[in-house]
Amino acid sequence: MCANLHSIQNERIVSQSSDAQAKTKSVCLEVFISPESDFFDGHFPAFKLFPAVAQIYLVDRFAKKYLGLEGFAKEIKRVKFPSPVMPGATVLLSLEQDLLNGTLSFSLCDSVQKDKVYSSGTAVL
User: Fold this and answer.
1) What is the pLDDT of residue 8?
2) How many whole angstroms separate alpha carbon 11 and alpha carbon 19?
3) Checking phi first, is residue 6 left (phi over 0); if not, alpha (psi -120 to 50) or beta?
4) HEC profile for the chain?
């Protein structure tokens, strides 16, 4: 495991479930995006934003950790980034794995303004 975790080490499980009959697993995490995270280094120095690649990194990292996924997605479909994630944001990352369809749906939204979506999409596993 890489020692550099990009200053994102403080996730808290909000909910977690597994439905053997429906063949789904899900987890919702609250994550603080530290202004000191090295993801902000060099990314729009005058107006720092949490990059899209970092959001996909969170999906991959926490899907492996909490849903037991191996490897990275073969394809990401319908990904959207409607709002920027600013330094110091607390976000909710929702992950749902559909074992029958071989997909992982994700959304990243504000932890207070839950209708404020930062990113969402579906990955083919």
Assistant:
1) 82
2) 23
3) left
4) CCCCCCCCCCCEEEEEEEECCCCEEEEEEEEECCCCCHHHCCCCCCCCCCCHHHHHHHHHHHHHHHHCCCCCCCEEEEEECCCCCCCCCEEEEEEEEECCCCEEEEEEEECCCCCCEEEEEEEEC
The token duo for 34 is 């530290």
Question: CA 53 → CA 39, 40, 57, 70, 101, distances in Å?
Answer: 9, 11, 6, 19, 25
User: Could you report the per-residue pLDDT of 52-100, keeping only the tens digit for each?
Assistant: 999 999 999 999 999 999 988 899 988 999 999 999 999 999 999 999 9
What are phi and psi for residue 55, nearest 5 degrees? -65, -40
Query: pTM for the complete prediction?
Result: 0.92
Letter for the amino acid at 68?
G
Whether residue 2 is predicted with pLDDT greater than 50 in this model: the reply is no
β-bridge partners, 76 = 123
